[in-house]
Amino acid sequence: MTFRAKHLLGIEPLAPDEIRTILDLSEQYVDLNRGALKHSDVLSGLTQINMFFENSTRTQASFELAGKRLGADVMNMSMQASSIKKGETLIDTALTLNAMHPDLLVVRHPHSGAVDLLAQKVNCAVLNAGDGRHEHPTQALLDALTIRRAKGRLHRLNIAICGDIAHSRVARSNILLLGKLENRIRLIGPPTLMPAGIAEFGVEVYDDMKQGLQDVDVVMMLRLQRERMDGGFIPSEREYYHRFGLDAEKLAYAKEDAIVMHPGPMNRGVEIDGEIADDINRSVIQEQVEMGVAVRMAAMDLLARNLRAQKAEGVWA
Ligand code: NCD
């Protein structure tokens, strides 16, 4: 086994072999999840705490289901209602939870770097469920698994990531992962939504959908992340849809068998036409959700194995 990490904080530190190890194990969990009995006991006796400091529907549900199917005791902390509102710092909250001896902490936080900081203060495995605009590693892994299953490979593909790149941790983690596996990545969006210094990532940048989508294998759409915008980044949603929204006319420039992806939540009629999102011949959006549960099961299984081994060796306090 090539995955030896203590935490899953981002895609950046992962080697291609580690990525493949997670994806290969995820395949087994896809089969388990499709069966009649969806239970395994690999996390039996372990405690998983989900701390979401930001709203989430699918990611939180998916981590909860993943933990339960693997037999962990799963607790969801409602951070809106917790002491954070009373001014307790992130670190104090983490130390309080740490005293309850969790084994796996799943954390989403609005600030980039907050999850890394927390991981330094606790003695259990930490999984980043999205930190600010930094990373969202399990999303990139589930996207990779979806692509690999649909295309039969995960290298030398032309992949377009479209829309609000600047505010997107999904884009960042995907650029890192797909780049490590030697794919060609194109970023398409208005210049105001492109991060500074993006050329260093070895990507091609377009501000025209028809040019950018020419002959791509994968079209990944992103939500306009208004909650992270502090000014006017686009003239209007109508204008944005006209230029950057994925509709049949623009999709026709991609390869005939190109797949359409979206991490959700989707804004129909803003970044994507509803009919394309629902077209089962093109859209793999529902598969992404399915793969999300399997990938999170695999990630927690691997981290728990490492945790047990490292605790036996006395590596952890
Ligand atoms: C994404 C996120 O929270 O970063 N959603 C998700 O995890 N499925 C993308 C988004 O919020 O637009």
Feature tags:
amino acid binding; Rossmann fold; 9 strands; binds N-carbamoyl-L-aspartate; 2 domains; alpha/beta; 14% strand; 317 residues
Q: What is the N-to-C succession of helices and strands? A: HEHEHEHEHEHEEHEHHEHH
Total number of helical segments? 11
What is the CATH topology descriptor of the largest domain?
Rossmann fold
Mean pLDDT: 94
- What CATH architecture of the largest domain do you see? 3-Layer(aba) Sandwich
How many domains, in number, for the residues? Answer: 2
Spatial extent as radius of gyration: 19 Å
What is the 3D form?
Answer: globular
Overall structural class, as computed from helix and strand content, comes to alpha/beta
Amino- and carboxy-terminal Cα gap: 24 Å
Low-confidence stretches: none
How are the strands ordered across the major sheet? 7-6-5-8-9
Give the C-level CATH assignment of the largest domain.
Alpha Beta
Count the E strands: 9
- What compounds are bound to the protein? N-carbamoyl-L-aspartate
Largest sheet: 5 strands, parallel
Tell me the CATH superfamily of the largest domain: Aspartate/ornithine carbamoyltransferase
Q: What portion of residues belong to β-strands?
A: 5-15%
Helix content: 25-40%
Domain Aspartate/ornithine carbamoyltransferase carbamoyl-P binding: 6-148
Organism: Actibacterium naphthalenivorans
Pathway: Pyrimidine metabolism; UMP biosynthesis via de novo pathway; (S)-dihydroorotate from bicarbonate: step 2/3
Enzyme class: transferase
